[in-house]
Structure formats: C-alpha cells, structure tokens
Amino acid sequence: MHGNLNLPFMIKIRLLAGLLCVGSVAFSQNVHVGIFGGLAAYQGDLTDKIIPKKVTNGAIGVTVNYELKPQIMLRGGFTYSVVVGADRFAKDDSMLARNLAFETHLTEFSLLGEYYFFDLNEQKFSPYVFGGLAIFHFNPYAYSGTTNKIFLKPLSTEGEGLSAYPDRKPYALTQLALPFGAGVKYAFNDRVRLGLELGIRKLFTDYLDDVSSRYVDPADLLAAKGQVAVDMSYRGDELPGGNPNYPAKGAQRGGVKHKDSYYFLGLHLTYRLGTGENSNRSGVFGGGNFLGGKKKGYGCPSVH
Questions:
Q1: What pLDDT does residue 22 have?
Q2: pLDDT > 90? residue 105
Q3: Contact 185/195 with Cβ under 8 angstroms?
Q4: Residue 304: CB partners within 8 Å, gap ≥ 6?
C-alpha cells in the first residue's frame, strides 16, 4: 500500500482523470434529452366539451430525463402553450348568453416520475404512466372588440380582493399543479425513443379562466375598478339581441364546485446521451448508435 501512495504524480493524475471520465460517461448514458410537441386545451367554466376543437392550441416543450432504473425514469420539463376558452363555441344556451372568453399564455415547469411496463432496453414498445408536481404561470386576458387586449385579474371581475366581498380572495398567477397521465413509447434503437402521451394537470384554482362563482353588484365593481371591469365581467349585452341588463348580484356566473384543469396531448421524442463500445445497452439493439452503426469509444484518457 505504501508503494501505491508514492506513484508518480502524472500517473495519479491520469488515474483520477480516467475514473472521473468513466463516471461521467456512465452518468450520461442514463440521461435522455427530449422535445415535446402537441396540443393543449383546458376544462373549466368556458368550455362544455372534453375536446374543444375550436379552442385547442399547440404546445411545445423540452425535457431532461434520467433513467434511474430500466423501467423508471425521472423527467424534468418546460412546456409553453396558449390556452383558450370561449362561450360562443358552447352548445349550452346559458353559456352563449353569457358571452365570456379568455386566453392565457401558459408556462410550466414540471418534475415527473415515469414507470414503464416493459424494459425499453430489451423491447421496442412499452406503455407507461407518469405523475409528479408542476409549477405553472398564467395571466388571463380577453379582447374588447377585436384588438384591445385587457388583462382580467386586475379588474376583480367577481369581486376578488374587494372589501364588500371578503370571502373572495385574489388568486395567484403562479401556482402548483399535479400532473399525471399515460402514454405508449417506441424505441427505434438504443438512443432514440418516441412516445405518444396524454398529460392532465389537476389545479388548485378555479380562476385559470377568471370565472368561478357568482356575479357581484355592478355598482360595487364600478366604484372599485371602473367601467371596464363591469364591461368585461358580463358581455351578454354585446350579442345581437342579447340581454342588456347586468345580472343580479349573486346570480350564477361560474361553477365553483370543480376546479379548472388543462392538458397536453402530443409526441415526446428523446435522445440518449453518451457514447462507448462498453455500454451495457445491448438487448434488441446490439449497442447501435443513432444510425444503427457501431458506437465509437468514450474518448477518455488511457490510464497506464
């Protein structure tokens, strides 16, 4: 042992570098980077369809995935979309008469755990499920006319934050969500995988669309927030033949029993990092690279 402690300095450096390199490569082989693309929609007070085709928008995201075990993946992701809802596309007469609408840019950071029913290092196809925690940011707005964009939260359209309605607290624009879902994934080779998945986000707010409970007294809203707040809280009078009278205080505006939610449906493409002939990823792939050929060496320094 005493002789090992007196190894020449350069040999020690090479040995340390080799160990660090091998450790780094072993770690990177468990890392998959990915992109997500698909559709986004929401469920709430301004839609009456499970899949509201006319207000479904695109979604895009990036992910970093770490393979804890062959069938367990840890996934961090960022997703962006624009979520929309509008009474004018509903079939319910009361919703059509209300004539409310909203949009919001939605950004989400999520941390998920994925479980695969089969080992994709050994098989090419597997269903999977996932769940975790997310933090998302939104800021609902609507248009007065065709071009005037008006953010809704500052207007307190249902009396949030007004002294006359102490039970209606202002809602936060950045909140937590519980994401969960399922999908199926296909492994083209050792590196490239493609999944089709549906992910639902359970929210703790009913104000994603700025609609939740009951109408306030328009006089209270006018005194506290001005005419624009009154105009944006009820828009039935804008319809041809619509009711010009603001609903009575306490009349139903939204459904407070159920919180809002949003969901993504799309494709998740991932690519495994790391190279090396000594990879343990054999199975049905035989250690191939992106194009199916033989992998190159690690590029780590030789230790003599």
A1: 44
A2: yes
A3: yes
A4: 11, 14
Q: Say how many CA atoms lie within 13 Å of 206 toward its Cβ.
A: 16
Tell me which residue of 268, 273, 276, 235 sits closest to 114, measured CA to CA: 268
Report which residue type is found at 174: T
Burial, 60: exposed, middle or buried (Cβ in 10 Å; 0-12, 13-18, 19+)? middle
Return the CA Rg of the chain: 27
Entry field: residues in the chain:
304
Cα separation values, 103 from 21, 42, 44, 151, 209, Å:
49, 11, 12, 9, 7
Q: Which of 36, 204, 199, 40 is nearest to 130 (CA)?
A: 199
Q: What is the 3-state secondary structure (H, E, C) of the chain?
A: CHHHHCCCHHHHHHHHHHHHHHHHHHHHCCEEEEEEEEEEEEECCCCCCCCCHHHCEEEEEEEEEEEEECCEEEEEEEEEEEEEEEHHHCCCHHHHHHCCEEEEEEEEEEEEEEEECCCCCCCCEEEEEEEEEEEEECCCEEEECCCEEEECHHHCCCCCCCCCCCCCCCCCCEEEEEEEEEEEEEECCCCEEEEEEEEEEEECCCCCCCCCCECCCHHHHHHHHCHHHHHHHCCHHHCCCCCCCCCCCCCECCCCCCCCEEEEEEEEEEEECCCCCCCCCCCCCCCECCCCCECCCCCCCCCC
Q: What is the pLDDT, as a whole number, of residue 28?
A: 61
- Token pair of 107, please? 């950004």
Spatial distance between the Cα atoms of 237 and 172, rounded to a whole number of angstroms: 30
- Report pTM: 0.82
**Confidence (pLDDT) at 252:** 95
What is the C-alpha separation between 116 and 74, in angstroms, rounded?
12
Output the six-digit token pair for 93. 């007469």
